[in-house]
Amino acid sequence: MTTPSFIPGLELSRRFYLEAVRPLLDEVAPGVTHTAARLGSGSEVLGFDTVRSADHEWGPRLQIFLHPQDVTDHGARVTALLSERLPKTFLGYPTHFAHTGEAGIGVMQTTDGPVHHRVEVTDLGTWFTAHLGFDPRKDITLADWLATPTQRLAEATAGAVFHDGLGQLAPARANLDWYPHDLWLYLLACQWQRLSQEEAFVGRCGEVGDELGSAVVAARLVRDLMRLCLLMERRYPPYSKWLGSAFALTPQAPTLTPVLTAALTATDWHTRQRHLAHAYEAVAATHNQLGLTDPVDPATRPYHTRPFQVLHAERFSAALTTRITDPDISSLPTIGTVDQFVDNTDVLSHPELTRAATHATLCSPS
Hints:
366 residues; alpha+beta; four-stranded mixed beta sheet; 11% strand
């Protein structure tokens, strides 16, 4: 098969819906109201796909949302019709996804038979509950917010909606657009708290000759600073593969990227610490520009009597915490959402596990 010219995945899916899928829907289920979108997992949903993305789980794919009763009445028939009647290729890309042997992973492949397509026919409540653990068309509880990784929230609010005949997807996504104000303050406070807990370790590790350990701590701090900048910009931080790509789009990136890169590539702790101190002060200045609290001194300083230069980031956490007026949020321990205290892919990929972890850790907030 000749490799076609690369088309960004969202544009490919949009044209696939308009030119191939919708005409078949109108034929097999005339008068049935539907919504069409490309949401969920996949680099194209976040806008970061490249030619490399086409090697698995990328291609002409989308969701068709129906009313629940229409899924019962028509879903299987629509899915089967699409399998029989969709073109074998679309704009040069196969519409058939062959199994690779890995659970749920498919790759585009030509076929002479019915296509195993990636047009998911479902209802909004089922899709949102499977993806997030709750239905955002209803009231979103504090527990819902805290138990949902930012990657999942990004996947539900990014992507593209091609047609919203149901009139329910746009309001649901608007409900997920960003955290309530007091919860945002809380999550910022928790992110500053994470920084405060390790910022002195870059020097302490280096002081005992553990440059490798110092570098590992520095990398953790860089990651937390990048996530903090995204939270400040009211953007859901994606998981590690796309964190740098998302950070590069923030206003802080042009200034901070060379500083953070220098911290990561430094071979001695003194240099590493110096670059991190510059980064701390720049991010602290951004905090003050937000006006969420009274100004906090952005200058770094020694760590108590030890010769390590730190920001004492807990000062920013405390300043934010005092501005939280919601008692349900102000009473929470300063640990944050599930992906601020859990760092395991198998947990963060399953809503039932993230909700269980949040329930156990935060005593089932309402």
